[in-house]
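Justification of computing resources. Each target in the renewal requires a structure prediction run like the one illustrated here; the chain below, 397 residues long, is used simply to show the kind of job we budget for.
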Amino acid sequence: MITLEFKLKGKAQQYRVIDDMIRTAQFVRNKTLRYWSDNQGVKLVDLYKQCAIMAKEFEWAGKLNSMARQASAERAIFAIQRFFANCQAKKPGQKGYPRFKKHTRSVEYKTSGWLLSADKRCLTFKDGFAAGKFKLVGSRDLHFYAPDEIKRIRVVRRADGYYVQFCINVERKEEFVFTGKAIGIDVGLNHFYTDSDGDTVPNPRYLRKSEKALKRLQKRVSRKKKGSGNRKKAINKLGRKHLKVSRQRKGFAIKTALCAVKSSDFVAYEELQMRNMVKNHKLAKSISDAAWSQFAQWLQYFGKVYGKTVIAVGPQYTSQDCSNCGNLVKKTLSTRTHICGCGAILDRDHNAARNILAKGLKQAGINLNTVGHTEINAWGQTDLYLLVATSTSKSTG
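Resulting structure tokens:
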């Protein structure tokens, strides 16, 4: 499944209609959740039936396409299922009890209620709201995909406009290029990540760099009278700035993950528990700004696309153990150099990256002492020959 996004170009009145569509989808989702909470023991299948009941009970709810109402109900159903799954798995902490939504920004349609033009450059909504025809603005081309491959569309409202996302049921696969390289990745705050070869990627710190502008825009919002048009404009400018920071962070994560996957046949990285790490209030902002979870998600995605092996390993003792002899060398967070009695002296993150690579190779069943080529199978498609000695026999002095 791939997603292609386009910006919707239309008139101001059409955008107001989209707002009504989004509010209706939020109502259906919350109403479905309310029915579930008021009727304990009700089957999830019965929640779909509430979509038709709501359409008859509320005339304006009936304007929304029937499949769009089902998609809105599915949001509540997925939240309920996730809650029960967390309870059964005895997940520590909060289990994620489903909550009512107040600020929904999207509405989903399945295979009906909308129509693409013959040249696939315009989108028309055909349900009771009659939002009309919108021009699609974007760099991607929909001509490569058949209409029946588009399983659903999602209309999203953002600070800088309205967007439509096409969810296309195709599997993306890229040509595999053998590099003969295996790396371990240790993420950090001084550097975004350090690999097992000692190479580093600088931390961009997009939020830190934009904090001054964000504070200035936030002050302008607070000085405006509540409910006024000027306050809405100030809020929109603040939202655009936050959106820019978010897009910068996402773009960096995509480019960095793509580079790491394409340049290696085997990638091992830390599986960090971000929920626990951000409890440190002195580092929470910097950790959130680094977006390590987003980076890890794109590593996994590109690993599947390019047929590479990407493995997540536990972070336990990766910074404390010596990558040369394996002895435990305790150090505080402020100690940035690893010094071991065996003579190994190297950067703390470099040492951790080497330990991560060793853990990943062991988890994949590869012998670290193998000389020459080691054969593994990545994603059940291609036999990769990793020159393990290249990544593990570097000097530690």
